[in-house]
Amino acid sequence: MPPGFDKLMMSLRLESKRLENQGKPPITSPDVVQTLDFTFSKFCPLGRVGDSGPLLLARQKEDRHKRYVVKHAYTDCACNEYVYTKLAQAMGYTMPGALLFQLAPTEKRRYFKTEYIIGIRYLDLKIESPSYPEIREMATNWKEYFSFLGMYAMFREVDSFETPLATDDKIYRIDTTDAFPISNYQLDMAGINRVIGASNPHAILEKRLFILRPFRCAIKKLVRFIL
Predict the structure, then answer these.
(1) Is the overall model pTM greater than 0.85, yes or no?
(2) Which residues contact 94 (CB under 8 A, 6 or more apart)?
(3) For residues 82 and 100, is the Cβ–Cβ distance under 8 A?
(4) Mean pLDDT score, 78-101
(5) When comparing pLDDT for 186 and 49, which is higher?
(6) How far is Cα 41 from Cα 59, in angstroms, rounded to an integer?
(7) 20 to 30 A Cα–Cα from 44, which one of 180, 204, 208, 222?
(8) pLDDT (tens digit per residue) in 121-145
(9) CB-CB contact of 73 with 53 (8 Å)
(10) CA 16 vs CA 29, 195, 223: distances in Å
(11) Does residue 96 contact residue 71 with C-beta atoms inside 8 Å?
(12) Hey, which residues does 166 pair with through a beta bridge?
């Protein structure tokens, strides 16, 4: 990828979103927060970088005890993990809370590789990778282990299956970027709604994603059934 290409893509997506949102009221969802209200620092647990790219640790300025592990390197992380979190929570399963960070126009810090930024509530862990006997003996919600496995199979995930045990004696399902068959490339391009050369990336990807319509309909039916 040529130097600066990711920044060019980001600027094109931001411009498309700005035009789309003209005349709309500001977002008021409690799940959407401003980057300016947080401090960020590099976060590299166990000295490794996973498939989600380099991570950040966000601390709320007003309450520095509120911490979030931030994924920002790829567009699919925010999209897929947020949707998965909300779906699992609607089903009554234990998930760390998720926030979406809105990149302020005046944001000058160079932390973020995309404008798609998700923060997963930081968990104080008792055991990072507990065995099933440890989960059965120590987790108050141990039965959810089988629910998490069922969702892992239902979404045909191939990434690692992670259910750490936190200090509140609950297991949590984390790292679910791979849960939906929508790639980082598709989301990168779909956000650009303007003609480049002789084509519009948004229109092209919208047409291609129609092949996922049966999958989306199944998810909608599942959510309606749960709720």
Answers:
(1) no
(2) 141, 144, 170, 171, 172, 173
(3) yes
(4) 94
(5) 186
(6) 9
(7) 180
(8) 999 999 999 999 999 999 999 999 9
(9) yes
(10) 21, 11, 30
(11) no
(12) 125
